[in-house]
Write a structure and sequence with these properties.
With 296 residues, the protein is an alpha+beta fold. 57% of the residues lie in helices and 14% in strands. A hairpin with a 4-residue loop joins strand 5 and strand 6. The chain is globular and about 60 Å long. The relative contact order is 0.14. The model has no long low-confidence stretch (mean pLDDT 90).
Length: 296
């Protein structure tokens, strides 16, 4: 088997963030320097024995670290870092479910998310410093994903649930994070702006970016299919981008298995046929905006 050390390094970084261990802790337990660990993450040749010890330390299968089989993540930060890596080479991204497509959100979305996470950390007592550090890491990963999208502009097809959009408008961004009434109002205001932006994009239909609204039964899970020149990856994800980085709300997975990708592709194609698109979708969003905002 040909070992692609750059990819092993990328996955090592994602799993390190997932574990919550500091780089120096992992390096010490492996008996290597922190600099050596960072070199592994950048794609330096790594011995098979070291891979086995790393996998044992991170409580994962060595095959997962080698990019074989399925990768599992039970914290948002590990999954978001791994998706960031996959997005670096993706030429097309197909997303199903959710109230927004994070890559197309505004800077205001990231700003209010940072404010919400800051308030949550302030209420965390002795855990405040660690919580703030984790939030900063997560926000940096999200911002890096958005910068990469702005540079590369892969094609995106995003199918959003009308039910999820309604809940976003009613409760605002970061609805699961404990914040003050002031920040809650800002979160709801930014949510309205994001939905208005999606409606505008559906009206103008810019090249390489398509939205569809799902009006029927909501899917049981959110997923995305990322296509690059040499591979296709499937990410199944219970974490919204506005999840707090300390949230443990499920298990995300990434796989390149043909049968898994084909099954999810069929679901996506069926959903796209039924989705409300273009000006009709924009009109539906504006109707929802008018209804929810009038009740606020």
């Amino acid at each position: 088997m040909s070992m692609r050390f750059t990819e092993i390094g990328q996955q090592l970084r994602a799993y390190r963030l997932e574990s919550g261990l500091r780089a120096e802790e992992i390096a010490a337990r492996l008996g290597v320097s922190r600099a050596a660990l960072y070199r592994y993450e950048k794609g330096e040749v790594i011995k098979l024995d070291t891979i086995k010890r790393l996998a044992e330390l991170l409580k994962i299968s060595p095959l997962s670290l080698l990019g074989i089989g399925v990768e599992y993540y039970n914290r948002p930060i590990g999954y978001f870092e791994r998706i960031r890596q996959v997005e670096e080479t993706a030429e097309q991204i197909l997303q199903l479910f959710g109230p927004v497509c994070y890559l197309t959100t505004s800077d205001a979305y990231d700003a209010v998310l940072g404010e919400a996470f800051d308030e949550a950390a302030d209420q965390a007592g002795p855990e405040r410093v660690a919580m703030r550090s984790t939030a900063e890491q997560a926000l940096n990963i999200l911002a890096a994903r958005k910068r990469m999208y702005a540079m590369r502009r892969p094609g995106i097809i995003a199918m959003l649930s009308i039910g999820e959009v309604r809940r976003l408008l009613e409760h605002g961004i970061a609805s699961g994070v404990a914040v003050s009434d002031r920040v809650k109002r800002i979160c709801r205001d930014v949510a309205v702006s994001e939905v208005e932006n999606i409606a505008s994009l559906m009206e103008t239909e810019p090249m390489g970016l398509q939205f569809g609204l799902l009006a029927g039964a909501e899917p049981t899970s959110a997923f995305k299919i990322l296509r690059a020149r040499d591979r296709v990856s499937l990410g199944v994800n219970p974490f919204r981008p506005d999840s707090h980085p300390n949230a443990h709300t499920g298990v995300a997975m990434i796989t390149g298995a043909d049968e898994a990708i084909a099954a999810h592709q069929r679901v996506a194609e069926a959903s796209w046929r039924e989705a409300i698109k273009g000006p009709a979708g924009a009109a539906r969003l504006r109707q929802l905006l008018a209804t929810v905002v009038s009740l606020a």
